[in-house]
Write a structure and sequence with these properties.
This protein is α/β, with parallel strands linked by helices. It has eleven helices and ten strands. The strands form two sheets. Strands 2-1-3-4-5 form a five-stranded parallel β-sheet, with helices on both faces.
């Protein structure tokens, strides 16, 4: 059975282009021209993934994704933003990642393929979980190693417990210095970096400078949009706002690892 995707966009030309590209690649495609229509289709059809325009009149993309994530029937469906800007806002609202507009036909389908491989539900959308069934089994086999950089011990331990349950091998670094030392001695597969202020952005820059291919996912409780934008601009592969939605974080991590073709 073909994977079924839902595309929500109020621009008819963009909607038709995206649909044609995906159908040609073998996907079954549902379309909606508004957030309200998209919500109805998502709940009724339970697609494997939703591609969501952010700049729509009425119910915009951020409002739509928040509604999707607040409904038990749709909250586990991964959502990819289609946006010409404000990627941090889309991710903070609940999108897994952002594909920039205008859509580039040469790379668009490959990007969707990569996201879907990392998040697809092995047993059908009605039985999907935040960390997709099948993903946990793959992780247990390969045991990717994650370094959590978090100075609050209880928060770090709680996050380690959650990620360990999903099949990862997790270590902790309570300070920026210990994180840099740890990465220098034994490179993990991915870093989850707590980013409370601009100082954390400097640590991200140092990590990227020493290990350019090392994926870093940022978690942060700051409401400062500039900090989020700075992290994404400096190479963070994902941004998850606190309090952490572990299902969303698990999907972001799975996508980041998948895109590396490890």
């Amino acid at each position: 059975m073909k994977p079924r995707l839902l595309v929500i966009d109020d621009e008819p030309l963009v909607l038709e282009l995206v649909k044609e590209l995906l159908v040609a690649a073998g996907y079954a495609v549902l379309t909606a021209t508004s957030g309200q229509e998209g919500l109805r289709l998502a709940k009724a059809q339970r697609p494997e993934m939703i591609l969501l325009d952010q700049a729509m009149p009425g119910m915009d993309g951020e409002t739509t994704v928040r509604s999707l994530k607040s409904d038990e029937a749709t909250r586990r469906i991964p959502v990819i933003a289609l946006s010409a800007g404000r990627a941090a806002d889309a991710v903070r609202a609940g999108c897994l990642a952002c594909i920039p507009k205008p859509v580039h036909p040469a790379t668009f389908v490959k990007t969707v393929d990569q996201f879907l491989r990392a998040t697809t539900r092995r047993h059908g959308p009605s039985r999907g979980a935040g960390c997709p069934q099948g993903t946990v089994r793959r992780l247990q086999a390969s045991s990717p190693r994650i370094l959590i950089v978090e100075d609050i011990r209880d928060a770090a331990e709680a996050l380690r417990e959650e990620l360990t349950a999903r099949g990862y091998v997790v270590s902790l670094a309570p300070t920026d210095r210990s994180a840099l030392e740890s990465v220098a001695q034994d490179v993990p597969d991915l870093v989850v970096l707590d980013l409370s202020d601009v100082a954390g952005v400097i640590v991200l820059e140092q990590l990227r400078a020493h290990r350019p291919t090392l994926p870093v996912v940022v978690v942060s409780g700051t409401q400062d949009e500039a900090v989020a934008q700075a992290a994404l601009a400096r190479g963070a592969m994902g941004y998850v706002a606190k309090p952490i939605n572990i299902d969303l974080l698990s999907q972001v991590i799975a996508v980041a690892l998948s895109l590396l073709d490890r």
